[in-house]
From TrEMBL:
One term of GO molecular function: L-leucine transmembrane transporter activity
GO BP: any one term: L-leucine transport
Pfam assignment, any one: Branch_AA_trans
Domain of life, source organism: Bacteria
Keywords: Amino-acid transport, Cell membrane, Membrane, Transmembrane, Transmembrane helix, Transport
Cellular component GO terms, alphabetical: plasma membrane
Family from the record: Belongs to the branched chain amino acid transporter family.
Sequence intervals crossing the membrane: 36-60, 72-92, 112-130, 142-162, 182-202, 223-243, 271-292, 304-322, 328-353, 365-392, 398-418
Subcellular location: Cell membrane
Topology versus the membrane: Multi-pass membrane protein
This protein's name: Branched-chain amino acid ABC transporter substrate-binding protein
Length: 429
């Protein structure tokens, strides 16, 4: 694989990850975190950069589909997990990209109904999705450079034109808050969805390439895309912190990004921001609809008809859900994320550790434990925290909505020790 292929793949990965949530969430995080912006950045990048990067590395090792991520638990569990993830992805983050595009790129300049924006938007998404073999080139060569150029300009103006007088943080637990806010980017879910898209795209372009060469390409492009995401997120959070005293504390996510753009880009802000939002959101929608269509195609013996039908369904669903406002979609997404995100993180981690430490036995027990101990966080996200609080207050990290973490780690260690004992081996052998 040459440097050109590496660059295009890395750019495509970055664009497929960087969508609506990735653009509107970090500035408000920085705005609210003030002088602790760096601590929020670490938490946010843990769940929105490190975990997704590990997901891409897992894809490089497996070079299969999302089904391979969970099949060691059981085939039935893997099918349920796959359908659930694709359903969430196509029903929430994909329509959210259209809603953000309308609120930030279209509505400020043209007083048109949101349904017109969504129809045009997903018609273009469909055109990209049906041109499956060209997605890497179209996204990597054409769209990503525009996104990065506009973001870089905003960062430079914010860095060199404004004083670093950060306000006091409004966030009680900045690190864990950053982790949970990173859930809303859907990047861990995006890793298992988008990674599969990249695998198929590489196979379409380089059918004769060896397993190891494709593994190297995916890994290197993943690291480059991860570095790009980290720099962009840190820049957006820092920029939000710089403007901590410039706006009303109750300002919405989209209004804050618009205000920052106006102060950094001047009179041309609306045009630049419209282009930035449209490109960032569009690439993510293309990745989600393509990934879902690829999966359904595989379920019907590689049927091109099934692929196109799923693409149409995904775009129609995007048009319908895209009529909701951004903040409402984010609020609706939270319970689903609190349920599926911990499982996704654990599956990613289990697929990157050495195979001798991640046998089917270990997979099953760690995933089951994660599911059980993520239920309190899920119930809390639907307003039942006061009801279940007295029964789970003893659980470590429960106050940070991360009650599943330590039990999962403990069961991972115990299940490995138990399996080694059964096999008559030393744990360190």
């Amino acid at each position: 694989m040459n440097k050109k292929s590496l660059t295009i793949t890395a750019f495509a990965l970055f664009s497929l990850f960087f969508g609506a949530g990735n653009l509107i969430l970090p500035p408000q995080l920085g705005f609210n975190s003030g002088n602790l912006w760096w601590l929020v950045t670490l938490g946010f990048c843990l769940s929105a950069v490190i975990i997704p990067l590990l997901g891409i590395l897992a894809h490089a090792r497996l070079q299969g589909t999302m089904f391979d991520f969970a099949k060691k638990v059981s085939p039935v569990f893997s099918w349920v997990y796959c359908y659930l993830v694709y359903a969430i992805a196509i029903a929430l983050p994909s329509p959210r990209t259209a809603a953000v595009t309308h609120e930030m790129a279209v509505q400020p300049m043209w007083d048109t109904p949101s349904w017109i924006t969504s129809v045009i938007y997903f018609a273009l998404v469909y055109v990209f999705v049906v041109n499956r073999s060209k997605i890497l080139d179209l996204v990597g060569k054409l769209l990503t450079p525009g996104i990065l150029a506009i973001l870089l300009f905003i960062f430079m103006v914010a860095t060199f034109s404004f004083d670093f007088n950060f306000s006091a943080s409004q966030i009680t637990h900045p690190f864990s808050h950053g982790i949970l806010e990173g859930y809303q980017t859907f990047d861990a879910i995006g890793a298992v969805v988008v990674g599969a898209v990249i695998i198929i795209s590489i196979n379409l372009k380089n059918a004769d390439a060896s397993f190891e060469s494709k593994k190297s390409l995916i890994r290197k492009s993943g690291f480059l895309a991860g570095l790009g995401l980290f720099l962009v997120y840190a820049g957006l959070i820092f920029t939000g912190a710089v403007f901590g005293d410039s706006f009303d504390p109750s300002i919405s996510r989209t209004a804050l990004l618009s205000g920052i753009s106006l102060q950094t880009l001047g009179g041309t802000a609306h045009w630049f921001l419209s282009l930035l939002v449209s490109l960032a959101c569009f690439t993510t929608a293309v990745g989600i609809v393509t990934g879902t269509s690829d999966f359904i195609k595989g379920q019907f013996n590689d049927s091109v008809l099934a692929y196109r039908i799923m693409a149409v369904i995904g775009c129609l669903l995007g048009i319908l859900m895209g009529q909701l406002n951004v903040d409402y979609i984010i609020a609706v997404a939270l319970p689903a994320l609190m349920l599926i995100y911990p499982i996704t993180i654990i599956l990613i981690l289990l697929n990157v550790v050495p195979e001798k430490l991640a046998t089917p036995w270990v997979f099953r027990w760690v995933v089951i434990t994660t599911m059980i101990f993520s239920i309190p966080d899920f119930l809390g996200s639907v307003g039942l925290s006061s009801t279940i609080g007295p029964y789970i207050e003893w659980l470590p990290l429960i106050n940070y909505q991360l009650g599943w973490v330590l039990p999962a780690i403990l069961v991972f260690v115990i299940s490995n020790l138990f399996q080694k004992k059964l096999n008559g081996q030393n744990f360190v052998s």
